[in-house]
UniProtKB/TrEMBL annotation:
Top-level lineage group: Bacteria
Assembly with partners or alone: Forms a complex with TatA.
Lineage of the organism: Bacteria, Pseudomonadati, Verrucomicrobiota, Opitutia, Opitutales
Pfam families cross-referenced by the UniProt entry: TatC (PF00902)
InterPro entries: Sec-indep_translocase_CS, TatC
Name by which UniProt lists this protein: Sec-independent protein translocase protein TatC
């Protein structure tokens, strides 16, 4: 219990910004910031170059949602075709940039954490580290959900709509990869909202009683988020996306109640 209480204790030791036994000055912090930016840029460039070197394998992986829609339907022609001279080159650059940024994100987060950690108290470190890990895990879960579930579902809805009206489907690499990146990144970012709820409860700006009372309003907000992120207006795709968001909301409420109990225990000890 004491370990948990220390996280919320106001008596945590202040950070000592020292290096080699001497206090760090302004230029020392600038030097650390410079190396943080250099290491982050290097991580991004390494992954972007690796994606460029293994572009064929990377492209085959990104085409899986499209192939899954075609599976069992050999008559369905969904081959991507460019409509401009430089579109293929532009798409390759976008894939290298976005893929490099996504793959380098954990390392960039680590480098940023190393930069700011000397300025954090022990209490703040104990709160920030689990928060960063949870943010990374939630984003990856959201990205995987978008890739394996929402993208194929969206493509299937689009195919059905085009077939119903008799439209010829001529999808371009730009439109396909744009949709893919939007859903993967959008869903990954949307999965971060439980952390915002827990953070607001931790700061005392929101209570779990309020969240429980306005649960119906939260459901409406979740469906609004689903409508913004999903490109198709069908209710099925939005519900598929809204279901895990609502589950995360309920988990955030449970975690928020635990945070509230710890804060109340701390306040009782200080009185």
């Amino acid at each position: 219990m004491k370990k948990d209480e220390d996280i919320f204790s106001d008596s945590a030791a202040e950070p000592e910004l020292v290096r080699g036994g001497k206090p760090m000055g302004f230029f020392d912090h600038l030097e650390d910031l410079r190396w943080t930016l250099i290491k982050s840029a290097a991580a991004f460039l390494v992954f972007a170059v690796l994606i460029g070197l293994f572009m064929r394998q990377f492209n085959n992986a990104l085409l899986w949602p499209l192939r899954s829609v075609q599976e069992g339907r050999p008559e369905l022609a969904l081959d991507l075709g460019t409509v401009s001279i430089m579109e293929g080159f532009t798409v390759v650059l976008q894939m290298c940039f976005m893929g490099g940024l996504i793959l380098a994100a954990p390392f960039i987060l680590l480098f940023v954490g190393q930069f700011v950690s000397p300025a954090l108290t022990q209490r703040e470190m104990r709160a920030v580290l689990p928060l960063c890990v949870a943010a990374l895990v939630l984003f990856l879960c959201g990205a995987c959900f978008g890739y394996f579930v929402l993208v194929p579902s969206t493509l299937a809805v689009s195919v059905g709509l085009n077939e119903y009206f008799g439209f010829v489907m001529r999808w371009t690499p730009g439109s396909y990869y744009g949709l893919l990146m939007w859903l993967v990144l959008g869903v990954g970012a949307s999965f971060e909202f439980p952390l915002l709820i827990v953070l607001l409860v931790y700061m005392g700006l929101m209570s779990t009683a309020t969240l429980t009372k306005y649960r119906r309003h939260a459901v409406v907000a979740i469906f609004i988020i689903a409508a913004i992120v999903t490109p198709t207006p069908d209710f099925v795709t939005q519900t598929i996306f809204a279901a895990p968001l609502y589950l995360l909301f309920e988990i955030a409420v449970l975690v928020g109640k635990r945070v509230e109990r710890k804060r109340h225990s701390r306040e009782a000890l200080t009185d």
